[in-house]
Amino acid sequence: MYIYCCFLTNLWSFPFPSFFTTTMSSQYIKMLTTLKTQEMNWLVICFLILGFMPFGSIAIRPVLDSARLLGFTEAPDYRNGVGCPEQAETTSYFCDPSLVHVAMTLDSEYLRGSMAAVHSVLRHASCPEHVFFHFMAAEFDPKANPRVLTRLVRSIFPSLNFKVYVFREDTVINLISASIRQALENPLNYARNYLGDILDPCVNRVIYLDSDVILVDDVHKLWNVQISGSRVIGAPEYCHANFSKYFTDSFWSDPVLSLVFGSRNPCYFNTGVMVMDLEKWREGNYRLKIENWMKLQRKRRIYELGSLPPFLLVFGGNVEPIDHKWNQHGLGGDNVKGSCRSLHPGPVSLLHWSGKGKPWVRLDEKKPCPLDYLWEPYDLYQPIRKVVFV
């Protein structure tokens, strides 16, 4: 009885594979609609039976397409253009020196944004097959563990070069202090601090991207930014911003802490888009330097935001400046209201919805900001309509 129900319900609900043509799909539907009345009655009964089964009891059911089950459609297959380098012969594919390495976090809450970001990178890359994505996923995501996320990404991007790494939240959980917005306290926000430890030693350079960005330019251009001298990271700087507001009065009034920047002239930069020299990062043990500031923050309240201030303290005034077009940030509004924002003057290569407002949320709520429509073409989320029996 149970096996029969599993077979019948899977026959009815199995999503169309990506290779189905319109003709094949129509034949599939036609076949289902020829079910006799008695078989349809059994189908309804089986849905009721399986609907009340505990999750663990359906383990013998065939594995369905995870992307379609979660509402994602398969992305187009992007291939290299003319003049792209050939793959080097190495023991590990991601050690190929011709690759562009991109690191991002991956979790159930921001999954839709992450997939749109990946889609935008591939669509505009001159050599998409030479982009390797490093995804860091929480060990205990209540909705999607790293194994599920790996299958999901592979379903959406069958030819994507990527690896999902398990980020142990207990690595940083005891260092995180309260922030002005709860989302900023997510341990995954701090995963960028550990890229030097997580990624293979042969990866000595990486672009870090937040999940709420869209690229409208070739990622290879950003990759080719040279990080000079002793600098470890590169990012667009905003020296007109009020740098002092990122730290508390307690910080600035302390005679020792206030001198931490010394002769450096620090400017604000957003950590959602960075080019990182991991070789220098590892040699300088910058992960430990950031952790030391986080430990001090636990003892004394020296800043209000989450993972940004420690980066400002360690790297402020010693950042390789990158053209502002690579981080048109703040499109999500502030950290409280998330109101609409307009673009900064000048050219645009990357749009960044930093702040509380996220384009997929506002679009779903039918309350989009004008710039959210620029994000929409990269969205791969298409919810499956529920079957309604009349």
TrEMBL record:
The chain crosses the membrane at residues 40-60. It is found in: Endomembrane system. SUPFAM superfamilies: Nucleotide-diphospho-sugar transferases. One of its GO terms (molecular function) is glycosyltransferase activity. InterPro entries: Glyco_trans_8, Glycosyltrans_8_dom-fam, Nucleotide-diphossugar_trans. The keyword Glycoprotein applies. It comes from the Eukaryota. Pathway: Glycan metabolism; pectin biosynthesis. It is an enzyme of class 2 (transferase). The keyword Calcium does not apply. Keywords: Glycoprotein, Glycosyltransferase, Membrane, Signal-anchor, Transferase, Transmembrane, Transmembrane helix. It is a single-pass type II membrane protein. One of its GO terms (cellular component) is Golgi apparatus. Its EC number is 2.4.1.-. Belongs to the glycosyltransferase 8 family. This is Hexosyltransferase. It comes from Anisodus tanguticus. The lineage of its organism: Eukaryota, Viridiplantae, Streptophyta, Embryophyta, Tracheophyta.
